[in-house]
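Practice problem: predict the structure.
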Amino acid sequence: MPRNLIINAILLSAIVALLIIPVFGWLSDRIGRKTMFYASCLFAIGFAFPLFWLLDTKEPLTITLTIITAISFGQMVGFAVGAPWYSELFAARTRYSGASLGFQVGAAIGGLTPFAAATFMAWTGGATWPISLYLIVLAVITLIAAMAARNRRQSIELTWADALYFCAWPRTRSYDPELVGVAHPNLGARSTVRKIGSVGQGAPPPMPV
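Answer:
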């Protein structure tokens, strides 16, 4: 298989990623972070064997489309959804450490994939099925972790008018939707805002409900 073909396919995948990552992020806001992760994991499980079958055709167009598809739905979903979801999984006090630790440990384990793939192929005389099984195992682990993760994201959607209301009051910049009650027509009387700012800043003035 020509090396330039793989490099060009990866380059095209990066270009496609620039377009689809915002779409995946938008979808995660609509249907949820977990749902997007579930879909990506199921795709990885189902595509693990067809990936190498398609690459073995040695047809440039097929190989290029296969690589673009694998990277887009198997990897870029995680890039699009991971950043906001990791921060939502932890409270503000542990967010940096928790997100960083999980990401770096996962990256360290994932970094062993090329070594594992080369080892499996050496053991089996060039067969790719052990690599497919390895990818399936990793996808299953990710799926289980996603199912076990808590969903701390609040499904409150603000209009532009809502955003302008909060921006118009400098004191509200020290608040985050979680702990302190705010009377707002679109948020409701029981909506909450978490105080995260400096000492001495008060709550935003209530709007008529």
